[in-house]
TrEMBL record:
GO terms for molecular function: aldehyde dehydrogenase (NAD+) activity. This is SDR family NAD(P)-dependent oxidoreductase. It comes from Mucilaginibacter ginsenosidivorans. PANTHER family: NAD(P)-BINDING DOMAIN-CONTAINING PROTEIN-RELATED, PROTEIN YEEZ. Pfam families: Epimerase (PF01370). GO terms for cellular component: cytoplasm. Residues 2-218 form the NAD-dependent epimerase/dehydratase domain.
Length: 327
């Protein structure tokens, strides 16, 4: 039996789908308030759903019964400053609980971290798995939570846990809808006016899931892998997305001071709306920074051929156009 945590999420649902298609017996965790994603409804008869929060160690222990492999895709993501401490506690404690149980029951673990937990390279260099986030200077709650969660996995490895860590870059795909990375596409579709000078790694969700499964079924252990298909500058990427939607591409550069003003105004607006800021300080600052990643370690390990980002863009635009047309 294979366990997938966070299976109602964007990545977790794709991992579960690929495992079921391959003929595996799969058990997936969900919260009592979560709904089964449309992607998995067609496979419902092949999936055993259990209610288990990673903070509920007794429910989690029951979920692990009879399993030999665990994919940990569960994580809380929030831009709200008020959620920072709670998010760090939830993600780190939940990972620690899972690590302890996997070690106890001799389950092999593939843990999903993020490139947010990887440090910055020198100008002109690619970021590799050897770079480490400086927690002393980091103020992004999500990045801190991912770094400290990784530390729990490394602690488990030191104690004998059989585990691998993956650090995906920006995960994209049609099933994101208008949430997460899908918000970038939806913003462009609605008429984005500005672009930024930064760059980022991007990877299709199908390839992240494929990489995780390949690593799980390998003899590799005690390693971390960046999962990223291509490094793309924001300007040509958003122009490509706009052309795909058939809308006017952004023509004006959003300079760093403008991004600084944007996150401050967004923070003020959130006070009145009660919603999370559309853009936070960390996002605003990173939008003008080049974060380009080296994926050679993963390619050497599992010989993966990544889906081109341009192909993913076409699939995402088609899906959002369909959603828009049905509304």
């Amino acid at each position: 039996m294979i366990l997938v945590t966070g299976a109602t999420g964007f990545l977790g649902s794709e991992v579960a789908k690929q495992l079921v298609v391959q003929g595996h017996r799969v058990r997936c965790t969900k919260r009592s308030t979560s709904s089964i994603p449309p992607l998995l409804k067609a496979f419902d008869s092949n999936i055993e759903w259990v209610e288990a929060d990673l903070l509920d160690i007794f429910a989690l222990e029951n979920a692990l019964e009879g399993t030999t492999q665990v994919y940990n895709c569960a994580a809380w993501v929030s831009l709200k400053q008020s959620d920072k401490d709670k998010m760090i506690y939830t993600n780190v404690t939940g990972t620690a609980n899972l690590v302890n149980l996997c070690a106890q029951y001799n389950c092999r673990l593939v843990h999903v971290s993020s490139v947010a937990a990887i440090g910055q390279a020198k100008p002109g260099e690619l970021i590799t798995e050897k770079h480490h986030l400086d927690q002393a200077t980091e103020n992004d709650g999500y990045a801190i939570s991912k770094l400290e969660s990784e530390m729990e996995v490394w602690r488990g490895i030191a104690e004998g846990l059989d585990a691998v860590i993956v650090n995906p870059s920006m995960i994209i795909g049609p099933n994101a809808g208008t949430e997460g990375s899908g918000a970038l596409f939806e913003t462009v579709r609605k008429g984005l006016k500005f672009y930024t000078e930064g760059s980022m790694g991007f990877v299709d969700v199908e390839d992240v899931a494929k990489s995780m499964i390949a690593l799980m079924n390998s003899d590799i252990s005690s390693e971390r892998f960046i999962v990223s298909a291509e490094n793309r500058a924001y300007k040509p990427l958003v122009i490509e997305i706009a052309n795909c939607f058939g809308v006017k591409p952004p023509a004006s550069l959003a300079k760093p001071w403008m991004m600084g003003l944007a996150w401050r105004l967004s923070k003020v607006a959130s006070v009145f709306t009660g919603k999370a800021p559309a853009i936070d300080k960390v996002t605003a600052q990173s939008a003008s920074i080049a974060r380009d990643f080296d994926n050679s370690k993963l390619k050497d390990a599992i010989n993966i051929d990544f889906k081109p980002v341009s192909q993913s863009v076409k699939e995402i635009c088609a899906a959002l156009d369909t959603i828009s047309g049905s509304n």
